[in-house]
């Protein structure tokens, strides 16, 4: 086994299936993005370290990160962003992988999806893209912090900066949307509208703090108008957690004029997003959130601690436990809108 400079070999113990995996597989489908080992929401144990690695040692529990934090580039040094110039995503968002890869199959290169590739028993990670976590953390739960839960929770707390007593609307009740609901609740929102076309998700949303439930299919008028009528002009904050440009516009237009903030959270890069200029001229703010605004190496261990301290829910997101050999079944379940499918790859006990 070759151990690369500044890299660690990580044994993946558990990984979630995220909609972004499906996006790459069935929607983005960039011709230069395959073949690829999917998966980016995992947790594992450091098996070995390469030359120059100073932060980790074999046996450490870790979460691979699809956003690096080198702590040296202009983005890492700026508190306004969690971007990093040294990660895989620098200039290759469409392919969703670096041109460089440590994976091969039958002598041919296989891309490392989002720099992580957690649908594998082993992966090779640069030390700037791994977070060391509490050794008592259960990997088959905290793996979800590698993407979806941090993305939704942080979008509410870090990006939108939801305030106590405010009103919020979350569009889309997958894992990211439910985490956004949880973030709004944690921030002290008074009313949290859960918006989805699947009414079966409303009971689950209540667990995370939703107070009101709106199904656009139940109304013969735009959802923005429905919410405006329910809130005296619109919500203070809206979060789009679907990755659909039409829903993004609806979320913006559901905000109150003057100070409403709408955050784009759902991942997509296929179509332009648009609105009438007056929506922004009137004082609304439209912004985006990547990984919930968390600086990855700092934020993920903090979220793990929050889970261990029972301040953040994780167990409630999990609907299925499956093996790596059932990964195709897990993807099929995601396609029919399961909230979150967890694949437990293997146990080290």
UniProtKB/TrEMBL annotation:
Cofactor section: Zn(2+)
Cleavable signal peptide: none
Alcohol dehydrogenase-like C-terminal domain mapped to chain residues: 175-303
SUPFAM superfamilies: GroES-like, NAD(P)-binding Rossmann-fold domains
Any Pfam family the entry gives: ADH_zinc_N
Superkingdom to which the source organism belongs: Eukaryota
InterPro entries: ADH-like_C, ADH-like_N, ADH_Zn_CS, GroES-like_sf, NAD(P)-bd_dom_sf
Keywords: Metal-binding, Oxidoreductase, Zinc
PROSITE patterns reported for this sequence: ADH_ZINC
Biological process (GO), any one: formaldehyde catabolic process
A GO CC annotation given for this chain: cytosol
Listed GO MF terms: S-(hydroxymethyl)glutathione dehydrogenase [NAD(P)+] activity; zinc ion binding
Stretches assigned to the Alcohol dehydrogenase-like N-terminal domain: 9-104
Family per record: Belongs to the zinc-containing alcohol dehydrogenase family.
Protein name, per record: Alcohol dehydrogenase 1-like
Species in which this protein is naturally found: Seriola lalandi dorsalis
């Amino acid at each position: 086994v070759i151990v690369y400079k500044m890299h660690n070999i990580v044994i993946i113990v558990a990984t979630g299936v995220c909609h972004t995996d499906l996006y790459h597989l069935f929607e983005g489908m960039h011709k230069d993005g395959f073949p690829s080992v999917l998966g980016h929401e995992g947790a594992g144990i450091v098996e070995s370290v390469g030359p120059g690695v100073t932060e980790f040692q074999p046996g450490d529990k870790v979460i691979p990160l699809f956003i690096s934090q080198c702590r040296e580039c202009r983005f890492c040094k700026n508190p306004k962003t969690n971007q990093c110039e040294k990660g895989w995503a620098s200039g290759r968002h469409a392919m969703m992988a670096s041109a460089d890869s440590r994976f091969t199959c039958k002598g041919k290169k296989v891309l490392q999806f989002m720099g992580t590739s957690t649908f594998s028993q082993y992966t090779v990670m640069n030390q700037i893209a791994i977070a060391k976590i509490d050794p008592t953390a259960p990997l088959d739960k905290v793996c979800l912090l590698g993407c979806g839960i941090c993305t939704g929770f942080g979008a509410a707390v870090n990006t939108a900066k939801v305030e106590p007593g405010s009103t919020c609307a979350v569009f889309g009740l997958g894992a990211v949307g439910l985490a956004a609901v949880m973030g709004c609740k944690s921030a002290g929102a008074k009313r949290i509208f859960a918006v989805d076309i699947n009414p079966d998700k409303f009971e689950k949303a209540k667990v995370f703090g939703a107070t009101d439930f709106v199904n656009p299919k139940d109304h013969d008028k735009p959802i923005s108008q429905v919410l405006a009528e329910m809130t005296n002009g619109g919500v203070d904050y809206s979060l789009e957690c679907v990755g659909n440009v039409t829903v993004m516009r609806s979320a913006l237009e559901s905000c109150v004029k003057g100070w409403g903030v709408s955050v784009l959270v759902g991942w997509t890069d296929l179509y332009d997003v648009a609105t009438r200029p007056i929506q922004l001229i009137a004082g609304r703010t439209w912004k985006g959130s990547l990984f919930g605004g968390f600086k990855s190496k700092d934020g993920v261990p903090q979220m793990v601690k929050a889970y261990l301290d029972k301040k953040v829910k994780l167990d409630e997101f999990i609907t299925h436990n499956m093996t790596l050999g059932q990964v195709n079944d897990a993807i099929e379940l995601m396609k029919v809108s399961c909230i979150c499918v967890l694949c437990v790859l293997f146990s080290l006990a």
